[in-house]
Design a protein that fits this description.
Blueprint: H1 2-25, E1 30-41, E2 45-55, E3 62-73, E4 76-83, E5 87-89, E6 94-104, H2 110-117, E7 120-133, E8 136-152
Parallel strand pairs: 1-8
Antiparallel strand pairs: 1-2, 2-6, 3-4, 3-5, 3-7, 7-8
């Protein structure tokens, strides 16, 4: 009976060690803002598409089930987005996810208006991605700062207070 108990204990220890080793195989994806599409700007606010790039450094595919993003521009909070649609990131590959954002001018500083008038947007983005891996669900938090190119769609009106465009 004693041998059976020791064997069961050894099996439990080996299984636990194997599970922690599997967790060590997972590398967090790099999530950053690739570019911003200005879809429309008016007197009260505007519509943007945030095109987020997800790079998978793993040798297995990831299935995204949720992406939550908050974005700040020039120190002002522009908005929050929750994307609940599935997205796939191939092994050692990249995918983009387009996140529509509606924002209002009230509450954002004049620096945001000016920044939207430039060719790129200085931003801070933070959030969480919920991912399915071969070993189960992982929630990955991320923060990224940088400058993202602005792409304007034809027919956009001028940005109030942004100067010449």
């Amino acid at each position: 009976m004693q041998v059976g108990g020791a064997t069961a204990l050894l099996a439990l220890v080996l299984a636990s060690a194997g599970c922690s080793a599997i967790g060590d195989l997972f590398k967090e994806p790099d999530i950053q803002l690739d570019h911003v599409v200005v879809r429309g700007i008016g007197l009260t606010g505007g519509n943007l598409d945030l095109v987020v790039k997800v790079e998978n450094p793993n040798n297995f595919a990831l299935q995204g089930t949720k992406l939550q993003v908050g974005i700040d521009v020039e120190g002002s909070h522009l908005g929050d987005i929750t994307y609940d649609s599935d997205f796939a990131v191939p092994e050692s590959g990249t995918t983009t996810v387009t996140l529509p954002l509606r924002f209002g001018w009230s509450g954002v500083g004049s620096a945001v208006r000016a920044a939207l008038g430039y060719g790129d947007l200085p931003y801070t983005m933070q959030g969480q991605a919920t991912l399915q891996t071969p070993w189960g669900r992982k929630v990955v938090s991320f923060t990224h700062e940088g400058r993202a190119p602005l792409i304007r769609q034809a027919g956009n009106v001028a940005i109030p207070g942004a100067g010449p465009s």
